[in-house]
Fold this protein.
Amino acid sequence: MQTHALTCTAMDDGVLLELRDLTRACAQPETWVMDLVQVGILEPLPGAQRRPSDWRFSGQALFTARKVQHLQQDLGVNLEGAALALELMQQLDALRARLARAGVSD
């Protein structure tokens, strides 16, 4: 198994990942990450240039990309289905947090 080091820039609010960092960490081609951006799953950070090579992503983007990988590889979900599944997971997490704040357990 081959591992790759990530080139990250530390920022006050987290880590910045370049396009190549995501592609290496996920062992996917650049076009895969570009597709994630196109369908709205990932979003380059504000101020990024139009060229994909200039895009920067938050550290959360890596976790999101890996969730998409799991949905695609293990469950056979397409990108649009992955986008919907991620949205539903976020809503579920928000509802669980609300219930926890209200003192209601699962």
